[in-house]
Design brief:
Subcellular location: Cell inner membrane; Cell membrane
InterPro entries: MetI-like, MetI-like_sf
Number of strands: 0
Oligomer: single chain
CATH superfamily of one domain: MetI-like
Structural class: mainly alpha
CATH class of one domain: Mainly Alpha
Shape: globular
Pfam families: BPD_transp_1
Number of helices: 15
Protein name: Putative spermidine/putrescine transport system permease protein
CATH topology of one domain: MetI-like fold
Main location: membrane
Length: 307
Amino acid sequence: MNSFANPTAPGMDDRPDQPPAARRRLALPSARAWLACAQWLVTLVTCAFLIVPVAMSIVAGLTVNYFRGVASGLTLRWLDQVWTQYHASVFLSLEVAAATLAATLMAGVPAGYALARSRTRVSRVIEELLVLPVALPGLASALALLVVYGGFSAFRMSAAFIVVGHVVFTLPFMVRPVAAVCASADLRTLEEGAASLGASFWQRFTTIVLPNAKPGIVAGALAVLTLSIGEFNLTWMLHTPDTKTLPVGLADTYASLRIEVGSAYTILFFLMTMPLLVAMQWIGVDAPGAGTRQRKTRVRNKSKDSQ
């Protein structure tokens, strides 16, 4: 009876104030949270702006009639037509990309290592000259190659001429990542230690430089492949009717055929380049510092095991 008469009994209106945790749950998001939400919103809108046209082009390549849309039905007819007419361009693009990669590996890895080790002004000038083709329009580089080597008919009509143009354009994308890795202080220390133990230059290069430069080599290799497959301006100037690559064929389909065929060609191009883009994320191109953190973690684990 007294419990009902006592206004201060538990459960009445004079309950203690809410704890600080409850008050925090009711608080509005902080300015940092609003800023993070705004950044995510801008990122998602930008991705949608870039991805939606590609998705619509892919859908167009799978529809029976582009002007009627998906309501006209889906078909693989256009893909089959593109493959029948342009499969030679697919294989030629792969061959050119593979040859370009081989040439840039043989020239770019030693060049990147040499530029990283040299600190003279001459090496800086050479590095800038290597990057110059990237700054120039592809048509200008192609015109220069035609002026110098266009008189050699057999070379001009072969796919090797396109490979030379692609090597000129993609070589900086191999040299720069390799030079950045080889310029690290840790690699120089390892080389000096190996040299003090009697290792020759070739032994140091194959057992120390190449394994440690793997992230830069992988990043450069994947960049060279994707750029070579997708290069249009330079290739359009250098190609002949017998050396038509994927980008040149894609331009022809959009210029002379119906839009469904051009979109189907885009699907074929997409299927070729996406594996390379995925490989760039998964085959060893780590985020900055990720490889260093992983190595430090392995060292700590080994030290703990030894103890």
